[in-house]
Write a structure and sequence with these properties.
By secondary structure, the chain is α/β, with parallel strands linked by helices. It is built from 9 helices and 10 strands. Strands 6-7-8-3-9-10 form a 6-stranded mixed beta sheet. α4 crosses α5 and α5 runs parallel beside α6. It is globular, with a radius of gyration of 18 Å. The two termini are 31 Å apart.
Length: 250
Amino acid sequence: MILLDNVHKAFGAKQVLSGFTLEVREGDIVVILGYSGSGKSVAIKHIVGLLEPDEGTVFVDGREVPKLSRRELYELRSKIGYVFQGAALFDSMTVGENVAMGLRKQGNLTEAELQNRVHEALELVDLPDAADVAPIDLSGGMRKRVGIARAIALRPKYLLYDEPTTGLDPVTSAVIDELMMRMQQQLGVTSIVITHDLRTAWTVSSRIAMLYEGTVRQVGTPDEIRNTTDPVVRQFIEGKATPSGVVGAL
């Protein structure tokens, strides 16, 4: 289980999170919705210790992340796959080398075992023959899939997706949505998906949390969010603007 408990985070004078609290149960796919710049990515970076809260704390499997030693933090990160917004692939490496990066850092597999793991991960994202391809020769959707393959090659317990469908056409976005559900079903991973794409939210989530002004405005099942009476959440899901602009837009 992952728990972000009353997390506050500011960068200079800008307060980004103001008492953010969210529980992610095992087996869940939790989508965090919010306007661009609302702090969605900031929130999940606390889970892997890339950021430390100014106030509040974060627990993963009962371990308090901000209090972990460097060694314990590396151990924790080995259980968490992070899919970056832009895939974050190295164009100087082949697809296979990109997928193998985390495994090589762990250093506990033979070369044959490592290559088997890379092939297995690429198979799971429907790119079985892409190991020797250069990332620059891939479409945007294929690069996203390689990013997922790199994350799942570690056989993580948790997957964190940062805007996985941003910049993709509707058909390719649907492919990524299907892959996220497949990872949960076939690998049993617990996932957090950061997005402002409502179609992705409705499709993949078991629960949705709406981030607004630094805190969770509402959390519930997709049906509960669809039928919300909260005016701020209602405005977001209907895509409406007030006369003075969009509420909460940053």
